[in-house]
Amino acid sequence: MRPVAVGDLAALVAINDAATPAVPVTPPDEFASLVADSTLALVAERDAVPVGFVLAMVPGLDYASENYRFFSARSDDFLYIDRIVLAPAARGAGLGRELYGRVFDAARARGASEVTCEVNVEPPNPESLAFHAAMGFAEVGRQATKGGAIVVALLAAPV
């Protein structure tokens, strides 16, 4: 694990976009802005090749995400995971848990009381819901986004 570098962006955009519909397709310039706005931006590597990443944000940003805004209206004491994505070949090897461990470490260091995120329920993402439940996340809300095309479970876990 290491901080995201500019040279990683093309590989991370490809990993991100391959995970649709679990995460939105994101143009490279928009992805670069997300990384720049993130309080925590880490890349997971295997043999020096990026295979995943996490982007997390603190409250108080001018970020248009409907899900981030839900958590911002609810609290000012969280670390929000905007997205965490692993390439299919990297799944099941513990990298997701390691990335989440880093997020929880960062939340503790900031004095945040919870880590927040969302998971699609329409279209369904049962693997992610099960993973988050195993990591201690509980549903604190549900909302339709993208004009009703996607419904997400809004999740929080104590730090």
From TrEMBL:
<keyword id="KW-0808">Transferase</keyword>
<dbReference type="InterPro" id="IPR016181">
    <property type="entry name" value="Acyl_CoA_acyltransferase"/>
</dbReference>
<keyword id="KW-0012">Acyltransferase</keyword>
<protein>
    <submittedName>
        <fullName>GNAT family N-acetyltransferase</fullName>
    </submittedName>
</protein>
<dbReference type="GO" id="GO:0016747">
    <property type="term" value="F:acyltransferase activity, transferring groups other than amino-acyl groups"/>
</dbReference>
<dbReference type="InterPro" id="IPR000182">
    <property type="entry name" value="GNAT_dom"/>
</dbReference>
<dbReference type="InterPro" id="IPR050832">
    <property type="entry name" value="Bact_Acetyltransf"/>
</dbReference>
<dbReference type="Pfam" id="PF00583">
    <property type="entry name" value="Acetyltransf_1"/>
</dbReference>
<dbReference type="InterPro" id="IPR016890">
    <property type="entry name" value="UCP028520"/>
</dbReference>
<feature type="domain" description="N-acetyltransferase">
    <location>
        <begin position="1"/>
        <end position="157"/>
    </location>
</feature>
